[in-house]
Design goal:
The chain is α+β, with helices and mostly antiparallel strands and 550 residues long. Among the domains are: 113 residues, Umud Fragment, subunit A, CATH 2.10.109; 164 residues; 104 residues, no CATH class. It is built from 10 helices and 24 strands. The strands form 5 sheets. It has a 6-stranded antiparallel β-sheet. The longest helix has 32 residues. The chain is elongated.
Length: 550
């Protein structure tokens, strides 16, 4: 029972803790750094599991293609199909944004300082020392506890009981394996959501104004160039919008365009409407409007005259506000988008305000994710194989049924053998301890003690670390264990119907034989039986048990 329990616990531990390198579902990571303090420290062991989806707040490990190593950080934002991460102890964001495929797994278990032990074992000298100590312990246990049959000079006559025991243990292991698999499979849902569907909104600004040859390359001010109100007051603005996603349908919404003059330091601002809220249908639209830059300067001059507040430069923002409704992969989406084109201006000119040198201030985008209600069959990764939960449930039930059927078959076989004869049942149970001997090679001169059951005799043999000697004398089976000058004996009658009845003592047998010499009705075979019994029983008493149930 202890062995079966150990096998069961080992199987459960393997299913739960098997590493991904061996087909399991757990990835082991040792923290190397302080970017996740104060909760995670250098030398901690992190256990990760792959997840179908990841969300903001998850602590995950991902493969950083730029650094060529794995990074353990926390997700703080989503960027379409990529994740924005940051260390808990860092003031900056990770420059690399991994996709879901690049994420190894999210935090499942945290074992403080255990990683230091693993790192210690990685050193060859330490590993050799640990293996040597383990091997020495195993060898010592084997030397202290020799084999039960070490003292026997002859091999047992039959090892069928041992083979049956091994078969029962094997079937027990199979039953526990399929039982654990069934529990694991039936506690998992049959289906799972496909995952979130990304969609993207893009906006592109462009502008133009009347230029002056000699000041510009052409007589037209183009997007990206500064505008001088002394040369022209009117700025022509355009905005193009588009939305993209897989399975995008039923797109509609509203948009409006306005300008906003502000001072970021003081918080002062004024809004100038350009295009009122207008509806649109489809995944794109184009709008254009004209802004009077001289009016913008006049608003600033009026504010300065009335308040006495002066700044060297102000900000002009062109904002396109979009409200969108769409169907993305069967999911209804409602979202908004506020791309903004920013200018800085002073008394002389308006110019683009670009705070990010690597970004295009004229082109902006927004990535989002929508939930997906579509379902797919859930899978259970197992040693590189990815069967569905439904399949694993079926395999578990079939395997459990077959293995239990094997148990029932062996049970029926044992019952049948026990019904046929007690000798067969003894062979079945203790075949590995029994050794057949010839009655003429065994001299039982020591005191003999009869034991009540064969189980008692078997326990005696195990305790004395010896074999059970078996001999058959005229229809009787003798099972003997000799220890410290005493012979322990158990006797059975192999006949199903009880053929022989034996007298109680040697004197009675001798008297019967003497009287029978003058009895012509005494057959010679009976005389031989009585002679042998009298020879081997000596002064002991024998009781012939009847067949069980008879």
């Amino acid at each position: 029972m202890t062995t079966l329990l150990s096998l069961f616990l080992s199987l459960i531990s393997w299913l739960i803790l098997a590493p991904t390198q061996l087909g399991g579902s757990v990835t082991y990571v040792i923290v190397d750094g302080n970017s996740m303090e104060a909760k995670f420290h250098r030398g901690d062991l992190i256990l990760l599991r792959k997840a179908a989806t990841y969300k903001v707040g998850d602590a995950v490990t991902y493969q950083n293609a730029e650094m060529g190593r794995y990074v353990f950080h926390r997700i703080i934002n989503l960027n379409l199909d990529r994740f924005v991460l940051q260390g808990d102890n860092n003031a900056w964001l990770d420059s690399y944004q991994p996709t879901q495929e690049e994420i190894v797994g999210k935090l499942w278990m945290h074992l403080p300082r255990v990683g230091k032990t693993v790192e210690w074992l990685r050193l060859p000298i330490n590993m050799a020392l640990a293996v040597g100590l383990l091997g020495g312990s195993l060898m010592s246990s084997m030397m202290i506890r020799p084999s039960k049959h070490e003292k026997g000079k002859n091999k047992p006559s039959s090892n069928f009981g041992g083979l049956l025991t091994i078969l029962l243990y094997f079937l027990g292991f199979i039953v526990l394996t399929f039982l654990a698999l069934g529990i694991f499979a039936f506690t998992r849902p049959l289906t799972r959501t496909v995952g979130k569907i990304p969609y993207q909104q893009e906006g592109k600004f462009f502008y133009s104004a009347t230029g002056t040859t000699g000041v510009y390359d052409t007589d037209q001010v183009r997007s990206g160039e500064p505008i001088f109100p002394k040369l022209t007051c009117f700025l022509n603005l355009g905005f193009a919008y588009s939305m993209s996603a897989n399975q995008l349908q039923d797109i509609s919404g509203t948009h409006q365009l306005y300008a906003r003059v502000l001072d970021e330091q003081s918080g002062w601002h004024r809004t100038i409407p350009m295009i009122a809220a207008t509806g649109f249908v489809g995944n794109s639209y184009l709008t254009m409007a004209t802004l009077d830059l001289c009016q913008v300067e006049a608003l600033v001059n009026l504010m300065e005259q009335e308040t006495g507040f002066h700044q060297n430069a102000y900000t002009l923002e062109i904002v396109s506000h979009v409200d969108i409704m769409a169907n993305v992969a069967g999911q209804q989406v409602q979202d908004s988008f506020d791309p903004t084109l920013a200018f800085r201006f002073d008394e002389v000119h308006f110019y683009l305000a670009n705070n990010d040198a690597q970004a295009n201030p004229l082109q902006l985008s927004k990535q989002s994710l929508t939930g997906n209600s579509d379902l797919e069959a859930n899978i259970l990764p197992l040693l590189g194989w990815k069967p569905t939960v439904q399949m694993m449930r079926g395999i578990a039930l079939i395997g459990l049924g077959l293995s239990l059927g094997g148990f029932l078959g062996i049970g029926w076989y044992i019952y049948t053998m026990a019904y046929q004869s007690q000798e067969a049942l003894i062979r079945l149970s203790y075949g590995s301890l029994i050794m057949d001997v010839h009655e003429r090679s065994l001299d039982i001169s020591s005191p003999v003690i009869d034991v009540g059951t064969i189980d008692d005799l078997a326990r005696m043999a195990e305790r004395q670390n010896t074999m059970i000697l078996h001999m058959t004398v005229n229809f009787l089976n003798y099972y003997l264990v000799q220890s410290s000058g005493t012979t322990y004996r158990y006797v059975t009658n192999p006949s199903k119907y009880g053929i022989v009845q034996v007298a109680a003592s040697r004197h009675e047998i001798t008297d019967y034989m003497t009287n029978s010499e003058s009895n012509t009705n005494c057959a010679e075979p009976v005389r031989e039986v009585l002679t042998d019994v009298a020879k081997y029983l000596k002064k002991t008493t024998i009781q012939v048990p009847s067949q069980p149930g008879k």
